[in-house]
Design brief:
The structure holds 2 protein chains of 2 kinds.
Chain A lengths: L7 E4 H8 L13 E3 L11 E4 L5 E6 L2 E6 L3 H49 L4 H20 L1
Antiparallel strand pairs in A: 1-3, 2-4, 4-5
Helix pairs in contact in A: 2-3
Chain B lengths: L2 E6 L5 E2 L5 E5 L15 E5 L16 E4 L9 E3 L4 E3 L10 E21 L11 E7 L15 E3 L1 E18 L9 E8 L1
Antiparallel strand pairs in B: 1-2, 1-8, 3-4, 5-6, 6-7, 8-10, 8-11, 8-12, 9-11
The chains are: A alpha+beta, B mainly beta.
């Protein structure tokens, strides 16, 4: 897609390459691909005309969106890559936080269970056990999730 | 609203209205093409027989051979001598068809073919007709909707330009009136 913006045909593979899609050859037939509003693209040889009035071509591969500015193609590709990296990194951070939370909750449950066993071993009245457990649980959660 | 505009390209374009005739002729307007040969000029004729493209130096792209070019490419002559069909430039193509829509749409399933003017599945009567899109390596015997010229899908835009070359040869003597062109597409 050059700066002359001529009425030109490109293969779907060429467009994915210009957009900076990684391993574009592997995407056909495996991911949902949409180029400039054209749906159901499953062949790398699918010919697509980009009209001279078109300034931006949006591409969807799976759930990732890429964009090509037909006049500032290189600049846009870099911007798109940065946006994609940022989104991927945000997703990774979130996944890590969720995993960390799961581990902490499991540890807290173990501590509380152990305390319950200790209190029951002391044969204290049930009301007292419940009260102490409640306080202990609050302490544990404050300590682990503050 | 969706609209089609057909232009015969040339030094200046000539609009081909719905009632107009695309005339294939020998060297000049109204001159007859020899049976078995292809046209040497293309014109727009009004419904009352006037030469609408007179003064516009209309383009003409003539079929020369189906596979005689380099690597099996078709050959054509658009005024510079015989050349491989796929080296023709946008401005040298015979017709420009513009499909427009009020909002941006993507175009797919785009086909172009000659037919008898009545039934899309029938080829033209008494004529051998070929067509090619800009960039095609070979002519397509686009006669009837069953064997059309397939035009590349076009990404989202309000105006979709297609550049098409057409050439025809009479199979017998006489005016060929059961001969028309049709363009079909799907937009979304």
């Amino acid at each position: 897609m050059n700066n002359t913006k001529a009425n030109k045909k490109y293969t779907a593979l060429e467009i994915l390459k210009i957009a900076g899609v990684e391993n574009p050859e592997d995407k056909f037939g495996k991911f949902k691909i949409r180029i400039a509003g054209l749906r159901g693209i499953s062949s790398p040889n699918h010919l697509i005309t980009i009209q001279p009035t078109t300034d931006q071509v949006d591409i969807l591969v799976g759930d990732k969106v890429y964009s090509i500015n037909t006049t500032e193609n290189e600049k846009t590709r870099i911007v798109t890559e940065e946006v994609t990296k940022h989104e991927e990194s945000k997703a990774e951070d979130k996944a890590a936080r969720v995993e960390d939370l799961k581990v902490k909750k499991a540890k807290a449950r173990i501590k509380i269970s152990k305390k319950e066993v200790e209190l029951k071993a002391e044969k204290l009245p049930i009301e007292e056990i419940e009260k102490e457990l409640e306080e202990f649980e609050r302490e544990v959660y404050n300590e682990m999730f503050r | 609203m969706a609209t089609f505009v057909w232009l015969l390209q040339g030094a200046s374009p000539t609009t081909i209205d719905i009632t107009d005739i695309i005339q294939f002729a020998k060297a000049t307007f109204d001159s007859k093409v020899v049976v078995g040969e292809y046209q040497d000029s293309t014109h727009v004729e009004s419904s009352v027989g006037a030469n609408d493209s007179s003064g516009n130096t209309p383009n003409n792209v003539k079929f020369i051979s189906q596979t005689g070019g380099s690597g099996g490419d078709s050959l054509a002559d658009w005024g510079d001598g015989t050349e491989d069909l796929d080296v023709i430039l946008q401005a040298e193509c015979t017709i420009k068809v513009t499909f427009s829509h009020g909002s941006a749409v993507a175009v797919s399933g785009h086909i172009f073919f000659a037919f008898d003017g009545t039934t899309a599945t029938n080829g033209p009567t008494g004529v051998t007709s070929v067509a090619a899109e800009l960039g095609d390596t070979n002519w397509t015997a686009a006669e009837g909707s069953g064997t059309p010229l397939t035009i590349a899908d076009s990404g989202s835009a309000t105006d979709h330009d297609s550049y098409i070359n057409i050439s025809a040869s009479p199979d017998s003597v006489g005016v060929k009136a059961a001969f028309a062109y049709r363009d079909e597409l799907v937009y979304a």
